[in-house]
Amino acid sequence: MTTRRAKMDGSIAFEYAAVDSRRVSEDGLELGSGTKTGEGYAGEGYEHSPRRSEGRQIMLLVLLYLLQGVPTGLAFGSVPFLLKSRLSYAQVGIFSLASYPYSLKLLWSPVIDAVYWARFGRRKSWIVPVQCCSSLLLLVLGTRIDILLVEPEAHVAAFTAIFLLLIFLCSTQDIAVDGWALTLLAPENLSYASTAQTVGLNTGYFLSFTVFLAFNSPEFANKYFRAVPRPDPLLTLGGYLSFWGWARERASDGGLKSVYLTIWKILKLKHIQLFCIVLLFSKIGFVANDAITSLKLLEKGFSKEDLALTVLIDFPFEIIFGYYAAKWSNGPDPLRPWLLAFVGRLAAGIMAMLVVWSFPADGHVTKIYFLAVIIQNVFGSFMSTVQFVSICAFHTQIADPLIGGTYMTLLNTISNLGGTWPRILIFNSVDWFTKATCSIDVPEPTLFAGLPPIPPFHHQP
User: Which of 30, 74, 252, 298 measures 20 to 30 Å from 203, CA to CA?
Assistant: First the structure.
């Protein structure tokens, strides 16, 4: 086990651990060695042939991350919006448990690194079967999901279990793709792996959130596509899931036990422990903004179509931000953008609080207020994208490609868990601190109020 050093900023040096694939660890555990190629490791040493362009490899990563972003966009975005109109915040909080596989994938990431079919490929041995299972699940779910949506309060557990399985498959693919990116790209281009992840995940999320919510809205369909209004949407959740369902010998290297032991050795390092604590608690200040702001706007009367439009406007900015964030993170201070964006996200949370608080009392969304929502959303997205790309670029720099999937997963899991574990507390807190009232419209008193009712008139011949 060796250590390297990378500067967090101009003055603070952060010591991290990496398994040297050309050495034997302290206790004699041999991890093997390999040559870096597009398919994985073979032979001795560490080499990478120079390439003029790695556009095809980057586009492949974008496509794989996009396929992950579609289900996560549904689980983290569209489905909670569809459920919120009929469920309490506490019940929506129960559904948020479906996102936990992304925060627990470290438990099975060593299996992804150590067990595979050598003739098929180290990463493809997992990516292809997971894609097949995800496709089958989406096809089956597409035939049943609209029925479950009729009475969602009776099927909260079913919704949670189904999307828990779907996100489990996505997180498993994420482990394999993260590890593959370390061997697919040249060392000098590793920061663009986080760019590919940002573009792919955001595109998939955009399709499952903005595009789906727009075509799932009868008002949107009646306004832009129909001459005669109808109450049904252009695209149902079942149809969307079915579309994406149609659109998707083992070997051991180093040993499964070896990878788990390596994880334990990494976690025993003091600087890794401190880094994990930072990742675990650094997002508390802006989880409420990420999880609740949009739902609160909808609750106050902000339309789904307008909210989808804000995300549509924000989408190209996220792609641009992801590209430049990767360039900013590709240097001796890869975490400096993350540190600066941390302050920015706290400011974005304060802006979001003011935007929700200042929602028009009459429910009429003016152009100025709509512009304020867009500015807050774009600014918060900018800060979030910079943090995400910066931390992922840092992870790719310190991860050892030999156990790349596990090493990346170890750090990404802690980072994801930092944004996941507070969510159910936030959702329940909103219910605890929200005073719900119910009012009944009573007709105004008339001139004859208080007089006895007039008896019915019966015609007598």
Answer: 298
